[in-house]
Every structure is written in C-alpha cells, then in structure tokens.
C-alpha cells in the first residue's frame, strides 16, 4: 500500500488510517507507556485494522527505540500494518529510525521540519531557503534507507501557502511517497483546511506521485470536522489517536473520524466514480474492534474517557429520558444513528451480578480489551464474585479495577 495510491476502483479504494497513539498520543502528560504496553496496544491496533502504526520516535530514547523495533518485529509482519518511526529532519534521527525499523516487513520513516514563519524565526532560527534545502536533502537521505518515506511540514496551517507548495514540491522530487499537512497547534477551521488541501492539489507539481495526509490537533474542538473537509478535498491519509489522546487537547480521535466516515459514507463519497448510494466502507477499520481498543488504551495509559465522549464514552449509547427510551423500544433508529454492536459493544445488555457465570465474565473482559491467562482469569473471577456479593450491579469500571488490581498484584 505504500507508494502512489491504493486501488482506484471505487469499491476497494480506502482512506488510509495512520494511528499515532503510540507516538503523538503518548506525548500527553502522564500517558507514558512501557514497551510491553506499547506492544499490547500495537497488537490491538493491528486487529482494529489500522493501515499504519507510528510506534514511536526511535531517536528520542532507548525505550522508544526498543518499542519501535519490537512493534516492527512482532506486529509489522507481511500481512500486518506498516510500522513507522518519527524522525526530525536530522541525519542521526533518520538513521536511528531506519535501524529500529529493520525487522518490519513494511517500514516507513516519517521525517518532519517546521515551515511557518514563527517556527523558522524562533524555533529553528533558519531562513526559508535553508529549510527548503534541508527538507530535500533529508527526504533523499531517508529514501536511501527505504522506499516508504513520509514528510511533514510542521505548523503547516500557519505557513505561507506559496512557500508550503515549494517545500512539498521539493520533498516529492526527493522521493517522499506521503506528504503530511499537520495542524500542529489545532488552529485551522474546516473551510480553511479544505481550501488548503485543494490549493496543494492544484498548485504542487507532481502531487499525484504522493498521498496527501493530514494530522490534526483538537485545541478548539475542530479536529474531526477539519479532517472531513480535508477528505472531501483530496486527503487520503488521516493521522489520529485512539480516544483522541495527545499533546494539549489531543489528536484527532480515531474512533470519531472513522465512525463519521462510516455512518455518513454516502454523504462523503470522496472517491471519483464511486456511486452515491455505495455502501462500501471508506476505511479498512473493523469498527467492531473500536470499543475494545478504546478501553485498552484508557487502561494502559491511565487516561480516562469522559462519559459523554462521542462513540466510546459510557453514555454514548445510553438513553435516559422517557421519550427517548419509548422511541428506542419502538424502533432503534428513532434516537440511534449507529448500533452499539457496530463498535463492538455486543454484551452491553448483559448485566453482570452475583448470578453471572465465568463465561459471561470472561467474554465481557475480552470486550473491554483484556486477554487474561487462565490463572489471572480465575483469580479475577473470585474477586468479582466477592464484590458481587456486596454490590448489586457490577459496572465496567468495577471490572477494570478488579483486573488492573489483579494484573498489578500477580
Ligand atoms: O503536530 C505535529 O505537527 C506533529 C508532527 C511531528 C507530524 O506531530
Ligand atoms: Zn502532532
């Protein structure tokens, strides 16, 4: 899938989902993951069906280097996702990324440099001409290690578009197969972002040699809306993180953008020649794995999901008011635009209590993203029974507390 594009037939063409939970997602305060935790998330991301996993920033620390290598080796198999490492546009970073990615069947180096005036003046202290030359040279250097090279223009949405076009042109000429347009500070708006992507398509020579990618942050709550406009205008790779975790207000939430494209797939219909009524999915994501992935990421990072969070919040499929409950009982479509089952909430209706058996308990845990050994399961089940004697209904939060406690104490 690396290179120019995915299939051009409307039925099989897809928007590429690039997951950065393990890199940008992990960059939020308190969300640090160890190598085994990263590996567990990477395996689940592969089950979810993401196309690319950004496993870390190999040069940043020995732990990140090891995480990229382990994910590359254990998850980056020939049928698995592309495994990617971030690298500044600096030779030492690029070399470390290439080294860490060696075990991957399909590896990608993702190199970046800032392009906005404010970053050039205060952060890089370099002229536009210097940055242009570095971008070209470093993409070519990355290309000397592998064919699949992504190039990002950091702070693209605050960059002079004419200059942005020139940098992108040089990166493509040097061999970038994906060019990524980050809204680094979460500043853009949907119409502005859509126009930027359109401008890039129309003004960058040889743009059809690369996939246009977008990377979003949610500082003013527009990350998903910005991506929808980007897709309408030609973006074909979306960079996002599970539960929207990431720097400051976070990255574009994977589950939200994927379900927006899924629920409204006929409306967005971004592929040329695709019939308006087409039911074909727009991404490769198995949406039934979404809930499990969300719970796993929340448990391992310790980043709680707010109850009213779209798609994966505890209340996302709960109906409280009598009018809504009445409508739902008559026909679910009255107040539901998607099924709880479509994100993998199959056991939601089963209330766990003191009469529940081991099978219901274990299947609920699996739904929550836990794959326990037989011994761990037995111990957790005993604790569950103990709690169920004292408490009428056991919530998912009770179950997660039991299991987290069990895993920590065994
Ligand atoms: O937000 C950003 O600009 C980034 C880049 C490294 C892609 O995370
Ligand atoms: Zn970012």
UniProtKB/TrEMBL annotation:
GO terms for cellular component: cytoplasm. GO terms for biological process: L-leucine biosynthetic process. Keywords: Acyltransferase, Amino-acid biosynthesis, Branched-chain amino acid biosynthesis, Cytoplasm, Leucine biosynthesis, Manganese, Metal-binding, Transferase. One of its GO terms (molecular function) is manganese ion binding. Its cofactor is Mn(2+). Catalyzes the condensation of the acetyl group of acetyl-CoA with 3-methyl-2-oxobutanoate (2-ketoisovalerate) to form 3-carboxy-3-hydroxy-4-methylpentanoate (2-isopropylmalate). Belongs to the alpha-IPM synthase/homocitrate synthase family. LeuA type 1 subfamily. This is 2-isopropylmalate synthase. It comes from Chroococcidiopsis thermalis (strain PCC 7203). The gene is leuA.
């Amino acid at each position: 899938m690396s290179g120019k594009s995915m299939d051009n037939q409307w039925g099989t063409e897809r928007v590429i989902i690039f997951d950065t939970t393990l890199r940008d997602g992990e960059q939020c305060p308190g969300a640090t993951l160890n190598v085994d935790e990263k590996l567990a998330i990477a395996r689940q991301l592969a089950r979810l069906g993401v196309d690319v996993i950004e496993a870390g920033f190999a040069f940043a620390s020995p732990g990140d280097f090891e995480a990229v290598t382990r994910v590359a080796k254990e998850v980056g198999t020939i049928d698995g996702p592309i495994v990617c490492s971030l690298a500044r546009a600096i030779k030492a970073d690029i070399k470390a990324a290439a080294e860490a990615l060696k075990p991957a069947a399909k590896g990608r180096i993702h190199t970046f440099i800032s392009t906005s005036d404010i970053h050039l003046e205060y952060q890089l202290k370099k002229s536009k001409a210097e940055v242009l030359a570095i971008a070209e040279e470093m993409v070519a250097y990355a290309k000397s290690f592998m064919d699949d090279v992504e190039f990002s223009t950091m702070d693209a949405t605050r960059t002079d578009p004419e200059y942005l076009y020139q940098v992108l042109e040089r990166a493509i000429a040097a061999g970038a197969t994906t060019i990524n347009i980050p809204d680094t500070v979460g500043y853009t708006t949907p119409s502005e972002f859509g126009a930027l992507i359109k401008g890039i398509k129309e003004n960058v020579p040889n743009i059809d040699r690369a996939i246009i990618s977008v990377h979003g942050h949610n500082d003013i709550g527009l990350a998903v809306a910005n991506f929808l406009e980007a897709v309408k205008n030609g973006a074909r790779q979306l960079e996002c993180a599970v539960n929207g975790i990431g720097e400051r207000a976070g990255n574009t939430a994977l589950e939200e953008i994927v379900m927006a494209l899924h629920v409204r797939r006929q409306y967005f219909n971004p592929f040329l020649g695709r019939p308006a009524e087409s039911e074909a999915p727009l991404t490769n994501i198995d949406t039934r794995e979404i809930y499990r992935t969300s719970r796993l990421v929340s448990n391992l990072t310790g980043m709680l999901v707010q109850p009213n969070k779209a798609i994966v919040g505890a209340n996302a499929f709960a109906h409280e008011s009598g009018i809504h409950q009445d409508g739902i009982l008559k026909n679910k479509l009255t107040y539901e635009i998607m099924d709880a089952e479509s994100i993998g909430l199959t056991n939601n209706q089963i209330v766990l209590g003191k009469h529940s058996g081991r099978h219901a308990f274990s299947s609920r845990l699996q739904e929550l993203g836990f794959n326990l050994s037989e011994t761990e399961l037995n111990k957790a089940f005993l604790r569950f029974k103990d709690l169920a004697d004292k408490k009428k209904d056991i919530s998912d939060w009770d179950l997660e507390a039991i299991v987290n406690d069990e895993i920590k104490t065994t």
